[in-house]
Every structure is written in structure tokens, then in C-alpha cells.
Specification:
The protein has 283 residues and is of the alpha+beta class. The chain has a single domain (2-277), classed as Double-stranded beta-helix (4-Layer Sandwich), CATH 3.60.130. Helix content is 21%, strand content 28%. The strands form five sheets. Strands 1-2-3-16-8-18-5-4 form an eight-stranded mixed beta sheet, covered by helices on one side. A three-stranded antiparallel beta sheet has the order 15-9-17. The two termini are 34 Å apart. 40% of the residues are buried.
Length: 283
């Protein structure tokens, strides 16, 4: 096994292993690297669906995504992240990750981490970016840290409750009714989250799911949220990943946010499987 940093901001590449056949010692080294680097990529993996699910389960129970029409048949733990179509309809989530976010922050117990496996990649476009939310918190002005101490924010899956995001044109038909049907109740989480393993503090807001600050008047809260979001996605905090076939990428949702960079050339396919590991109540 070899572990090499991917950027100054965060991330590491782990090479020389087959994740489907890790013994306990190597798995422990992988888990330690994950906690240290926040994002880890395993190159050149050849995984069956069962391999992907089994490896993911070593980190905890798996979530079943609320978008049930985008799950892999007979394997509901797998969310299809793809621009493939059948009968004029996308077979999975085509617009996944179109705004900066942490997976499932709209749930009472958000995700610990997500594992995305590249089965088909586009030659042009389709990169993904991650931002280091430890660094985002640690580089805040001291006055801002004191101001937000103990503050909480509201998180919502429903795009219609979020002024920072739009509804893609191709998804507008029936979208409001769909979001009302599948969206869980909004949840309240601390703006500054303490990591369950490392004990480090991370900023825990995003434009996709964080819709307001509970402890301030609406206008003041929205202005502060805009300020925190803008700070958290500075280029110095970000690692950009160019996918290769066979990449399995595992990221920590407790201390990162990520963004699908789009730009896939017309006629090209980007097809991936994602599992999501259950987490704990943020504190």
C-alpha cells in the first residue's frame, strides 16, 4: 500500500491495494488515511456491486437514498449517478451535486461518508471538487468564530425552500409536488461541527441544503450564511478530481463539501455507483 497526498488542501491517493480483499491491518490503515486526508481515492479497482457494498459496509450501515426511483434495481444501497437514458428518461440522478453540499445534511443523522465508483467516464468534463471545511473554520476571523459559537442552521432537501438554488429546466415539470412528497422535515444542526473521530471543528453549512440560521433575524441570518458559504469555497481550500475509469473515491461528509463541476461533452457518458454510510447526530 502506498499513500500519496493529492493536493495541499486535502485528499490522498491510495494505491497498491484491492479494496475487496483488504485484511484488518490494511483496512485500519485505510481508515486512518481517510480520517487524516478527508478524501481518499483508490485507483484501478475492479468491483462488482457486491464488492462495492461490502467494502462500504465495513465503515458502517448504509443509507437508502430518498430518491427511490434512482436506485439500482435489486441493490437499493446503490444510488445511480449517471447521465444515461432509457426511453427518453434518465435512469439515475443526472444533476447530482450541482451545488456545493455535504451529503444528507438534511437528515437528523447525516452521512458519515460516501463512496463513488466510476464505471464509465467522459473524456471531457465531469470533474468533482471537494473543499476542506476544517480549514474553512480554522481560517475564519476570530470575531466571526465568536459570533457563530453555539449557532444552529436549518437544512432542507426541498429546493423550493432554498433561495440559493434553482430548479433545472428539464426537471421543472411536477418538481414542486415531487419535492413536497419526498422531502423529509427540515432539520437543525450546529454551524460548527465537531468531528466524532478527530475532534476537530469544521464549518457545517452549504448552499444546497442550508437554508437559514435559526439564531438570528432572517435578513441578518441570510447575510451571515452567504458570508460563511463564500468563505468556505475559496480555491485554496479545494481539491479538484479528474476521474479515471476504476476510481473509487471515499469522502468524509462531516468535514468536507463537494461539487459536481459538470461540463460533460454532448454524447458522452458518465456513469457511477454511490453508496452512503450512515452517520451520527452532529454536535
Amino acid at each position: 500500500m502506498q499513500i500519496d497526498r493529492l493536493s495541499d488542501a486535502l485528499g490522498a491517493e491510495i494505491s497498491g491495494i484491492d479494496v475487496a480483499r483488504l485484511d484488518e491491518a490494511d483496512f485500519g490503515a485505510v481508515r486512518d488515511a481517510f480520517h487524516k486526508h478527508q478524501v481518499v481515492v483508490f485507483r484501478d479497482q475492479d468491483l462488482s456491486v457486491e464488492d462495492h457494498v461490502a467494502f462500504s459496509c465495513r465503515f458502517g450501515d448504509l443509507e437508502i437514498h430518498i430518491s427511490t426511483d434512482n436506485l439500482l434495481k435489486d441493490h437499493p444501497e446503490i444510488l445511480l449517478v449517471t447521465n444515461k437514458m432509457e426511453n427518453g428518461k434518465y435512469i439515475g440522478v443526472e444533476n447530482a451535486g450541482d451545488e456545493w453540499h455535504s451529503d444528507l445534511s438534511y437528515m437528523p443523522k447525516p452521512s458519515l461518508g460516501s463512496l463513488l465508483y466510476a464505471l464509465e467516464i467522459s473524456e471531457v468534463g465531469g470533474d468533482t471538487e471537494w473543499s476542506n471545511m476544517y480549514t474553512a473554520y480554522e481560517t475564519l476571523p476570530e470575531a466571526t468564530k465568536k459570533r457563530i459559537e453555539g449557532f444552529n442552521a436549518r437544512h432542507s432537501f426541498n429546493r423550493f425552500r432554498n433561495r440559493r438554488v434553482s430548479i433545472p429546466e428539464k426537471h421543472k415539470k411536477g418538481a414542486k409536488e415531487r419535492y413536497e412528497k419526498i422531502s423529509p422535515p427540515d432539520v437543525i444542526h450546529p454551524i460548527v461541527r465537531t468531528h466524532d473521530v478527530t475532534g476537530r471543528k469544521a464549518l457545517y453549512v452549504s448552499p444546497r441544503f442550508t437554508v437559514g440560521i435559526e439564531d438570528l433575524p432572517e435578513d441578518e441570518g441570510q447575510a451571515l450564511l452567504d458570508e460563511l458559504i463564500a468563505h468556505s469555497i475559496q480555491r485554496d481550500f479545494i481539491y479538484r478530481h479528474k476521474w479515471r475509469l476504476g476510481d473509487l473515491l471515499f469522502w468524509d461528509n462531516r468535514c468536507t463539501v463537494h461539487l459536481a463541476c459538470r461540463g460533460i461533452a454532448e454524447g458522452q457518458i458518465r456513469h457511477m455507483h454511490r453508496t452512503t454510510v450512515s452517520g451520527d447526530v452532529p454536535h
